[in-house]
Design a protein that fits this description.
The longest helix has 29 residues. This protein has 184 residues and is of the alpha+beta class. It has one domain. A four-stranded antiparallel sheet has the order 1-2-4-3, sandwiched between helices. It binds iron/sulfur cluster. Iron/sulfur cluster binds next to loops.
Length: 184
């Protein structure tokens, strides 16, 4: 294992979460810079009101899953291509466990909805660039960012975690995946 995984969780009221962190216009303009913008049905721009998937809940359980690389691994991943390969592999491995857990949490709490990560359900690629409908609309879950939440601010304020990005393409110390379960 070339990384360690830890978790941090906290619950807040949904009213407070929506009021403090949902800002779809600002987040959509930031998402516009992402290569996935408009390329996945899980990502903006959406043809529905994003409030429709995050209104009507009582509680938000916010969770950070932190992937931590040690210095030795980081030193061997200074090159952009290598760093990307190692980061993608680690994220895929962690998401392979995390996503089924999120779906199970949702199943155990009737009426709840999980917010996960950019949809990766189809290994052959998303149908959106082909102009075709989503293959699994019932299973598609959005990330918090994709429906207008400022995840950086929420992670900092609620979990005390500063999200970290590499400025030079090398491997960062941490990759943090922010997910949530919204509960009625
Ligand atoms: S389930 Fe497949 S088709 Fe639907 S958003 Fe995800 S990757 Fe795209």
């Amino acid at each position: 294992m070339i990384y360690k995984v830890s978790r941090k969780k906290a619950s807040v009221t949904a009213t407070e979460f929506v009021k403090s962190y949902r800002d779809p216009e600002r987040m959509a303009s930031m998402c516009g810079e992402c290569p996935s913008f408009g390329k996945s049905w899980g990502c903006p721009p959406h043809d529905f009101n994003v409030a429709s998937v995050s209104d009507g809940y009582a509680t938000v359980e916010l969770m950070a899953t932190i992937i931590e690389f040690d210095e030795q691994v980081r030193a061997s991943c200074r090159a952009r291509a290598k760093a990307r390969e190692v980061a993608e592999r680690a994220m895929n491995e962690v998401l392979g466990t995390l996503l089924p857990e999120m779906y199970e949490m949702e199943r155990l709490v009737p009426g709840s909805r999980c917010f996960t990560f950019r949809c990766r359900m189809c290994p052959e690629g998303c149908t959106r660039p082909l102009g075709q409908p989503c293959r699994f609309p019932e299973q598609l879950r959005y990330s918090l960012e994709a429906v207008g939440f400022d995840v950086t601010a929420a992670a900092q304020d609620i979990l005390g975690i500063g999200l970290e990005w590499s400025k030079d393409g090398s491997l960062p110390r941490h990759i943090t995946l922010i997910t949530a379960l919204m509960i009625p």
